[in-house]
Structures are given as C-alpha cells and as structure tokens.
Amino acid sequence: MTINLKTAEDIEGMRVACRLASEVLDYITPFVKPGVTTEALDKLCHDYMVDVQQCIPAPLNYAPGGYKPYPKSICTSINQQVCHGIPSSDKVLKKGDIVNLDITTIKDGWHGDTSRMFVVGEGSIAAKRLCHITYEAMWHGIVQVKPGARLGDIGHAIQKFAEGHGFSVVREFCGHGIGRGFHEDPQVLHYGRPGTGEELVPGMVFTIEPMINAGKRDIKELGDGWTIVTKDRSLSAQWEHTVVVTPTGYEVLTLSAGSPPVPAFVTATAC
Q1: What distance lies between CA 146 and its chain's CA centroid?
Q2: Which strands, in side-by-side order, build the sheet including 236-238?
C-alpha cells in the first residue's frame, strides 16, 4: 500500500477541486424533480463543470481495470441502485424516488469527490429515514478522523450506527484515497473493528461514502457492467465527503454554500 500524503500546497489544490464538486450539487439541486431524465441531469452537470467551472468530469470515459469506459459525466443511482447508475434518457425521475448524484471533478490535476441523496417530490417516511440515517452514518465515520486513529474506527462507527437502526452496510464498495488519482490508497471500509487498519496521519486525504441498504446487504451488478443494485430490491442510500486528516483532527473538503447542515452531534463533538 502506498499512501500519498498531501502537502499544505496539495491540500489547497484539493480544497478547490472538492468545493467545485460540491457546488455542482448545489447547482443541480433545483433540477432534481419529477419528470426530469437522469440524462438531462448529466448534461446540465457536464456543461456546468466544463463551461462554468472550467474543470473536467472525472467519471467520463473512466475505465479502471476490467471495466469498459464509463459513458457519462456523473453517476445517478435511483431507489434500489446502490452506486454507479448510468444516466439515461429512459430513466425519468418520478415522485417518491430517491436518487444519489455522485460528482467528481478534476481541477488543475486534483480530484474532488462527493455525493448527495435527493428525495424527488414527497418521499415516503421510510425512504426519508434511510437517507437521513445514511447521512448521519457518514458523519459518525467522519468524526472518528484524527491523527492516531485507525481506519477500522471509521468503519466500526458507521456500521454500529447503521445496523443499530436496522439497516445493512454494503461491503463490496468503500471509500478511498484521492488526490492526483481518482482512486488511491487506502481503502476506507464502512464496517470493521475499532483499533484495526492503517493509522491516520496528517496529510492523508480520502473519501467516506457509506452505502446503506434498507434490506439485506447483498448486491449484484447489472448487465451494463457498472450499475450495482440490491439483490432484494430494497432501497439503498449513499452520501460522500472527501476529508483530510489535519494535525488536530479533520477537515471536510467537499463543503459548499448549499451543503446540508452538519448534524447536531458533530457540532457538539467539535466544540
């Protein structure tokens, strides 16, 4: 494992890329409503990144080993889709859907990676609860980040919180180091045992992005080679932030004016 620690100058570059990624989500929020296609959302985001922000949509034509190139600029995962849903003119959002929009920008060679859940129209109580608990689970992981902590502390906090509310944690996908590369070491599991895994040191930058299912944790890949869904067709939710380990704790890099409020327990922890 080779973890690329970031210098203060590197982190400044990451701050810009990460803020831009979050601002794409701010921009697209009013367009996420019944009747819109996920392809239309993809085009809006693509044009905003390229024409307004002058950055590069990292997913477009991204082809890690064993995968064919990803054909779009964002990921749009609806309802039982866990991650990597491909935008399409056939996918029309309808009232009550939940959808994850996953944005990764490249600015001056640095990657910024973040995602949010959206409830389309008026969602069910169960759907809104899943989105809320998944958001809080992510933050339960984030507040574990500080020098001397271990990656297992993050995963354990997320797993304990999510499973404590009757949900399950997807095991096959995880957070990851990020910087000049889209996916770098280390892998950041969203389950695990405290006190295990790599020790956190200042300058590490990685994503925390739990995928939480309303039903069982089992998943399968669709025939497009990208889209992952729950095997039992239960709803799935995901939130994602990019964080840096600082000398005293953590900084969330993917925050912007339109980011959802930080949970109250986080503010209390930070005081």
Answers
A1: 20
A2: 168-169, 211-213, 236-238
Helices 125-142/151-164 angle, 10° precision: 160
Domain parsing of the chain, residue ranges: 8-270
Pairing of strands 205-208, 241-245: antiparallel
Within 10 angstroms of residue 220's Cβ, the number of other Cβ atoms is 11
User: For residue 226, which amino acid is it?
Assistant: W
Give the span between the Cα atoms of 271 and 264, in whole angstroms.
Answer: 11
* Better-scored residue on pLDDT, 270 or 59: 59
* Burial class of 167 by CB neighbour count within 10 A (0 to 12, 13 to 18, 19+): buried
In this predicted model, what pLDDT tens digit does every residue of 219-233 receive, in sequence order? 999 999 999 999 999
DSSP labels for 176-230?
EE-SSSSSEEEEE-SS--TT-SPBP-TT-EEEE--EEESS-S-EEE-TTSS-EEE
Tokens 């995928």: give the residue: 211
Whole-angstrom distance, CA of residue 67 vs CA of residue 228: 13
119's enclosing H/E stretch is strand 110-119
pLDDT, position 66: 84
Q: Which CATH number fits domain 8-270: 2.160.10.10, 3.60.21.10, 3.90.230.10, 3.90.25.10?
A: 3.90.230.10
Residue with tokens 């500080």: 146
Unique residue bearing structure tokens 């701050």: 15
Task: For tokens 């005293």, name the residue.
Answer: 248
Q: What is the sign of the dihedral through the CA atoms of 190, 193, 198 and 199? A: positive
Contact 10, 245 (CB under 8 A): no
120-163 tens-digit pLDDT? 999 999 999 999 999 999 999 999 999 999 999 999 999 999 99
